[in-house]
Amino acid sequence: xxxxxxxxxxxxxxxxxxxxxxxxxxxxxxxxxxxxxxxxxxxxxxxxxxxxxxxxxxxxxxxxxxxxxxxxxxxxxxxxxxxxxxxxxxxxxxxxxxxxxxxxxxxxxxxxxxxxxxxxxxxxxxxxxxxxxxxxxxxxxxxxxxxxxxxxxxxxxxxxxxxxxxxxxxxxxxxx
Length: 176
Description:
176 residues, Recoverin, domain 1
């Protein structure tokens, strides 16, 4: 044991130690990784209502197994474990799990579609929404639950005010 601070490794050096790096390797089902990669690449976030519906389904209605599978893929891509994916991490993920190199243009196009808050990174919630299989997310029971989330008064119809309320996410100033 070393008591002198200057003789001890820094936190960054300790994280690079083989004991840590070997234990932190995440086993990912290649089929899941390939599916998530394809879905990320093909994701279209061109409609606000659709994006809000998908975000609700992703956060509230996915099963534990579905969430765990996507979390494993995200963690495998998140090489620096900062909770967000950079363009480089996505490119490395494509090479590692897909054996395919994405051009800078392809990564930028994909980022513009997936990075809904325009932070320059894909955070976990953005990843989950984009990486889900559209058939999986649009199952009848999940769509019915999402419809009920928008249909606040239970009328069976979604009004303009109900959409506005759902899309403002509690911002009372924008409700006026």
